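Regression check, uridine-5'-diphosphate case 369:
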Amino acid sequence: MAWDYKREVEAIQRHLGDLSFQEQRILITGGAGFLGSWMCDVLVSKGAEVVCIDNLASGLRSNVAHLLESKKFRFIEHDISEPISFSEKLDLVVHMASRASPFEFEHYPIEILKANTLGLMNSLEIARHNDARILYTSTSETYGNPQVVPTPESYFGNVNALGPRGCYDEAKRCGEAYVTAYKNQYGLDTRTARIFNTYGPRMRFDGIYGRAIPRFVDQALHNQTITVFGDGSQTRSFTYLTDQIEGLLRLAALDRAKGCVVNIGNDKETTILELARKVLELTGSHSEIAYYPLPKDDPLRRRPVITRAREILGWEPKVPLEEGLSRTIEWYMAANLGKPKEREGSRAEDRSRKKDNAGCRRSTFQPRA
Ligand code: UDP
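Current build output:
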């Protein structure tokens, strides 16, 4: 059964209304990643010419393979931490390149720091030389383990620079400082999104890339133990990808959002245990829930204040968790990711994964005992 990605693209188009990207040339770093590839899809469908850069460290060529035939799309395999120049004039740069899964923080801290400092600086320079605007995708992790919840953009954060999340949290905080510096020193047209937990089709479920939602779905569909960390009372506010991409594109496109830093996330807070139970219910799985130690510095609560997004962007999340989870489960099953034989035993899948991620080390992640 083919999974129809156009439904997501059309929903985003509908919600963007008459916001136009027609005839714009747009560079997306990290464009083969989970969110980056949806960004490419929507912008191509809105008539933009998209240049996608990705080093395929955690992104997948297959996420953008269907776009390769379009004259409006170009893929460049390149690590944005290394400089690159363009002969064509660009209108917008979207810097999304970065690994984002907590399990990756342990294995690739330097790559993460580089993507959000050197890589971002390269993107900022490209924007500056093109007199283009830039959208930087920062994160709710800039708040660390927040003492103020719901968290407004004015909150400074509570981050442990030396802890296991330090490489990501501080890289993104430094990234925000870079963006602010380019805005202040060069008058660059900048926009910064603080993305809260976002999920949906194309999110990686395998090895060290997996976040809570794809891991729980994968475990539930294999009737394996659901690995809840801690007692599951920690919270996250989950945003479905269509809502997230709509928010990001509104932030990128609206003149009144110039210079703004905006939380983009759902303001409905869910405990991880509730999430695990919802996944069990929606998959009809008989998996047991088991409890594992809470990772160090795992934020206990995460929920945004989204007044700014409502007021400046005219945006709010629309997709309920059950609906987004159902769509994610449908995708997962249609993509045959749920078949244990193919996942574990298939050489073909192994080969395609290797091809997809040339140069990427294999995961050594094991669930904690
Ligand atoms: N989590 C969990 N079991 C897992 C993976 C994650 O209980 O197998 C928890 C994790 O400790 C965190 C929450 O789920 O509290 C969200 O984790 P995720 O990796 O999705 O992203 P984070 O918000 O921590 O960056």
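Comparison notes: The mean pLDDT is 92. Residues 6-356 form a domain with the Rossmann fold fold (CATH 3.40.50.720). No diff flagged against the previous build.
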